[in-house]
Amino acid sequence: xxxxxxxxxxxxxxxxxxxxxxxxxxxxxxxxxxxxxxxxxxxxxxxxxxxxxxxxxxxxxxxxxxxxxxxxxxxxxxxxxxxxxxxxxxxxxxxxxxxxxxxxxxxxxxxxxxxxxxxxxxxxxxxxxxxxxxxxxxxxxxxxxxxxxxxxxxxxxxxxxxxxxxxxxxxxxxxxxxxxxxxxxxxxxxxxxxxxxxxxxxxxxxxxxxxxxxxxxxxxxxxxxxxxxxxxxxxxxxxxxxxxxxxxxxxxxxxxxxxxxxxxxxxxxxxxxxxxxxxxxxxxxxxxxxxxxxxxxxxxxxxxxxxxxxxxxxxxxxxxxxxxxxxxxxxxxxxxxxxxxxxxx
Length: 345
What we know:
Blueprint: H1 8-15, E1 26-28, E2 36-40, E3 46-55, H2 59-63, H3 77-90, E4 94-104, H4 110-126, E5 131-138, E6 146-155, E7 171-175, H5 180-189, H6 191-195, H7 200-207, H8 216-224, E8 229-232, H9 237-249, E9 252-256, H10 264-273, E10 286-290, H11 293-302, E11 307-314, E12 319-323, E13 326-329, H12 337-342
Parallel strand pairs: 4-5, 9-12
Antiparallel strand pairs: 1-2, 2-3, 3-6, 4-6, 7-10, 7-11, 8-10, 9-11, 12-13
């Protein structure tokens, strides 16, 4: 199978169809396009949990572009924690604690572990997200350090902000730009190629796009603006995220390709690397479904967050992408462009 998330067919038939436990306290459970499990607790409160995992490196190692083609795509522990906090915020929950599991290769050094945990503690402090516990283990079954972050959040409502609340006729709003996370990775990995073609400032700006990874501010504003549902774009890019949202909600989509916001740096990096920006890691971009998308976008813009209405939900199951007079249909998500580009030898 391809490296990356399981394909939708495998996920449905080999994973989700094997889950048969039903509990009335689970308000929202495992499904396509759902990153959090949400539980009813006392009174009107809810508890949300989510998990993010990946091969990790220190920020200095990532920044210096020390990975070569053919290696596992690695991220920082700070990014994993931030993504977990993002998932919780998208569900309408307030992030409150995290647990970390580390699976480490036999050649790991104690000082490396200390540096990794220092980074984890720093980002958790910035998010007011205490590290409540976890597990650390050295094992011969991994060749690079691997981390699993479990996040916990609380909400004061019994109607989680999930795809189940999407209805036909709602408008689709995006925050910031698509492809940010993948652009940063490609720019670091292919710095010399970019410098041979573009000014240094472009390569440096693109490599720093992961500073936009947090979607907590727009999620909080959207909740106050009566957003119907939210979904953070990630692996598979904006096309995969739109498919997941529509598939989970059982609605169609009509999307205007030219309204999907792209940074020029992303366009240049993707052109240089031969990547499709719409199928590229898009952490930092939040999809929102709202009855009045223009009003929501205006609210975000007034608070310094770029936003755009890119289309609307429809009856039926067609997921249409319009580009001037041309029409194409969204396909089931495939492997993210980042793996196609970074794992080439």
